[in-house]
Design goal:
84 residues; single chain; Alpha-Beta Plaits
């Protein structure tokens, strides 16, 4: 289990498909391999002030230390990752 909860999210995943998901209130983040949904949810609330209602975690075959998290946020909330 990850001890330092402040470093669960490494960075937002910026790609065309990931950016298009924001229309559906879904955002993709690169997270540490040891992170679980509860830790990701807490950190999203602290950093972006949003409430995650669903988190899907995907293991990356190309990386032993990272995985991707697809996060769906509450209706009416959004995360500003890229400037408009």
């Amino acid at each position: 289990m990850l001890q330092n909860k402040t470093n669960v999210i490494i960075k937002p995943w910026i790609a065309e498909k990931a950016t298009n998901l924001s229309k559906f209130r879904q955002y993709v983040f690169l997270v540490r391999k040891e992170a679980n949904s509860k830790q990701i949810k807490e950190e999203l609330k602290n950093i972006y002030n949003v409430h995650a209602i669903k988190i899907n975690i995907l293991n990356r075959a190309s990386s032993k230390s990272e995985k991707k998290a697809v996060v769906t946020v509450k209706e009416g909330e959004k995360i500003e990752i890229l400037p408009q």
